[in-house]
UniProtKB/TrEMBL annotation:
Component of the ribosomal small subunit (SSU) processome. Keywords: Nucleus, Ribonucleoprotein, Ribosome biogenesis, RNA-binding, rRNA processing. Its main location: nucleus. It holds the Pfam family KH_KRR1_2nd. Required for 40S ribosome biogenesis. Involved in nucleolar processing of pre-18S ribosomal RNA and ribosome assembly. Gene3D superfamilies: K Homology domain, type 1 (3.30.1370.10). Residues 237-249, 281-301 have a biased composition (Basic and acidic residues). Belongs to the KRR1 family. GO terms for molecular function: RNA binding. One of its GO terms (biological process) is rRNA processing. Residues 112-182 form the K Homology domain. This is KRR1 small subunit processome component. PANTHER family: HIV-1 REV BINDING PROTEIN 2, 3, KRR1 SMALL SUBUNIT PROCESSOME COMPONENT HOMOLOG.
Amino acid sequence: MANNPESKYYVPELTQEDVPGGACCVDETTFGTLFPNYLETYIKSVWPAVEEVLAQHQLAGKLDLLEGSMTVATTRRTWDPYAIVKARDFIKLLARNVPLAQAQKIFQTEIFSDIINIAMKGVSTQRFVKRRDRLIGPKAQTLKAIEILTGCYVLVQGKTVAVMGPAKGIQLVRKVVEDCMNNIHPIYNLKQLLIKRELAKREDMKHEDWSRFIPVYKKSLPNKEKRKAVQKIKKERAKEAKKKAEGKMNKSIFPPAPPKRLEDIAMESGKAFLVDRKKKPREDFELQSKKEDKGSRGEKEHRRKKE
């Protein structure tokens, strides 16, 4: 949308004076959205300010903490028919943890928003987290570069990316995000955007083809031998993981049994009953003590007879 009033594409902003009767909404229009539990305290503390922002556009808001939802609706005094759509985007951004100071800019004429879903079906969580971290970059440098080159506000939260800015910038951000989640590094798209930005500054290049200046990256395929080696390594890792999983499943909750004694092994094989058992020193001691007792008794009887 052109900002220059002299342009033939210029669209003047709608004011309350342009609406006959000062209101345009005959019937009530409502939009609602849910928010996560961890944002309940924040939204509750910010809700009075949210109602003030909605009141500036003659809209009403409702917060339901039991259901965990936010609702916006038109009133009889609402004069802008598109304000309710902006209010719907406003509460969606709040539900995705966008700060209130940033989210209320959505009511500006040339600011739009988009919620990009980056959830990957059938992909491991580790790979998803790795690609999401690649989009953010070290110390959020990649995210800052995307914001500078597209002129948009970008916030990565969970499995969604919230974007605010002009319509063209939002389209560029969506392309970068989707390519990143499809295993194309953001640096390639950022290089192309940077070159286009520099070419747009030159007046002699405005009416020329830029395709010869923009680099085209092709995905390099590995050799057959390399593919086979990679597949072999993957199969070995899968086998090891399967063995570990089976070992964990078959593992008993009870402690291991103590090792068997030599006597137990001999009794199981039957050798203990075929070989003469050796007398233990304890048994020898008991026999010797019995003999000594008998000898002492015999001496006592012999003395009595003599007497």
